[in-house]
Amino acid sequence: MDPKKKEKLQTWSEINRNRKRERKEWKEKSLLKKKKVAQIEEPIKQSTDANQCQIDNIELSTVSFAIPGSILENAQSIELRTYLAGQIARAACLFQIDEIVVFDDYGDEVNTKKSTLEDNYGMKTMRHCCIQLARILQYLECPQYLRKNFFPIHKDLKYSGLLNPLNAPHHLSANEHFEFREGVVSNKPVKPGRGSIVNVGLRQDVHVDRLLTVGLRCTVHITSENLNDKKLKGVVVSPDIPRKKTGIYWGYSVRLAKTLTQVFSQCPYKQGYDLTVGTSDKGSSLDEFICPSYKHMLIIFGGVQGIEFALENDPALKEDDPRLLFDEYLNTLPQQGSKTIRTEEAILISLAGLRPKLNPLNPPIIFKESSNDVDLSCSIVSSENNVIVDEMSRFD
Known about the structure:
The structure is a single chain. With 396 residues, this protein is of the alpha/beta class. It folds into two domains: 214 residues, 3-Layer(aba) Sandwich (Alpha/beta knot), CATH 3.40.1280.10; 88 residues, CATH 2.40.50.140. Helix 3 crosses helix 4. The longest helix is centred in the first third of the chain and has 46 residues. The N and C termini lie far apart (85 Å). The C terminus is likely disordered. Belongs to the class IV-like SAM-binding methyltransferase superfamily.
């Protein structure tokens, strides 16, 4: 007789009892394994959190410039107005300007055409030329895949097709891989307490950790390593984190000021601008200028009639001499060959002349773009062929 048949058959209760015991043992082993992994990862996480906190607390030095919106009124047509605004945006991007302030050098005149626009600090009603300039500057700074969400059809943007693209580092295509991206919160349904879905210009949306208002623009740090994953995860960060962490230029902000006084008084930085520079052909020569160290620098350009005209139309300022308003009052192009320098020309000339003299207290780290030892987490990389993309090869 076969000995296997002599074995006693197990009852269903015994089989279930054995299965429960095996399941309990497997859970205990799995729990022990998770504890070991957590013990290994905890110091790394604490170190990462400490580094992130240190990065967040750094206040980088910034450069801002202020221009009067009236310079658009000196253009002969709507097309030239648009192109002039585009030249200013290009100059700001080339020299990595952090903030552009558009102010009204005519003051609060009653019988002037006015418009309304929202900047980072709320709705503002000002002369139409100031609003138009600010709107075009905002439009060019915004990544292409987000423009339809924030800029509906408007007559101020009618000739935006004439504008030269900024080719800014944060204007990424769907094939370019970088750890930070700008996005807009979509209205896709998400379970309560599970954050939000953000469109960042990739083929897949990113699931972020915070519940945000639909339609809000935000900066996302993508934590998923592979952009081809079905589900991408990310963390919402402050817009200044990409530059703090990697040194990459992340665009400029636009602020509206109704008078010259508000350029100073509504400064977004807690301690204000610690170095202010006025530009005029009546100032001292730039060649003799020695730049002191600064946290936040502001350069102010005048319109067709100069800074003196803005000073006269500002009821809050009693000084007659514009030199008293600034730490430095400079002539950035001594012995000029023309009687006048247009504002868009003065911006390029001044920023080019000041650039080698700047002495920021907390400069951003240098962004490594094309080195053999470059860290791919801090570089813009094509997800298709894993090669570093040349900035000048990308078009808006």
